[in-house]
Amino acid sequence: MKIKPKIKGGTKMSEHQTILLVDDDKNFLEATSNVLESVGFRTIKASSPGECFDIVQKELPDLVILDVMMAQLDTGFEICRKLKHESRTKNIPILMLSAVDKKYPFDFKDSAGEADWLPSNDFLDKPVEAAELIERVKRLLEDKKEN
């Protein structure tokens, strides 16, 4: 992820909103956390499915950013499906990120939102520009407020 030192467009909207970051790449977690915190979001980091579910049991985030591939190829998909099928977490927006479509010839963006296969709310390819990540996060949180 390319991090720019200052990002224009930070708003009060982000204050006190919590984003759960789930990725087994600790460098990516740290970089993404820094970007989101620079515009006022609070972040919680999980590097495994178990850690993700432990966090969600204690505190419901406003949004989840989830990597597709972690320990196994489908780890992110399984986390996404489980979160979207549990009544307590089904309304939390999920933004999935991955470089998987660079390794495999499949465009996941077209499948985001399919309830049975990939029930995420949005999908971005890694590497993602900081400004684009912030824009998508804000849009998903606004959509959540409207629903």
Structural summary, described in words:
With 147 residues, this protein is α/β, with parallel strands linked by helices. The protein has one domain (16-146): 3-Layer(aba) Sandwich (Rossmann fold). The protein has five helices and five strands. The protein has helices at residues 26-37, 49-58, 75-85, 100-103, 130-146; strands spanning 18-22, 42-46, 63-67, 94-98, 122-125. A five-stranded parallel β-sheet has the order 2-1-3-4-5, with helices on both faces. Strand 1 (18-22), helix 1 (26-37) and strand 2 form a beta-alpha-beta unit. It is globular, with a radius of gyration of 14 Å. The termini are far apart.
Question: How is the topology of this model organized?
Answer:
Elements: E1 18-22, H1 26-37, E2 42-46, H2 49-58, E3 63-67, H3 75-85, E4 94-98, H4 100-103, E5 122-125, H5 130-146
Parallel strand pairs: 1-2, 1-3, 3-4, 4-5
Taking all Cα atoms into account, the compactness measure Rg is 14 Å
CATH structural architecture? 3-Layer(aba) Sandwich
Compute the separation of the termini in Å. Answer: 31 Å
Task: Write down the overall geometry.
Answer: globular
Major sheet characteristics: 5 strands, parallel
According to CATH, the homologous superfamily is Response regulator
Tell me the domain tally: 1
Beta-strand residue percentage: 15-25%
Note the total helix count: 5
State the total count of DSSP E strands: 5
Low-confidence stretches: 2-11, 105-109, 111-115
What oligomeric state do the depicted chains represent? Answer: single chain
Helix content, binned percent: 25-40%
User: pLDDT average, as an integer?
Assistant: 82
**Which class do the helix and strand fractions yield?**
alpha/beta
Give the ordered list of helices and strands: EHEHEHEHEH
- Trace the largest sheet across and list its strands: 2-1-3-4-5
- Would you tell me which CATH topology applies? Rossmann fold
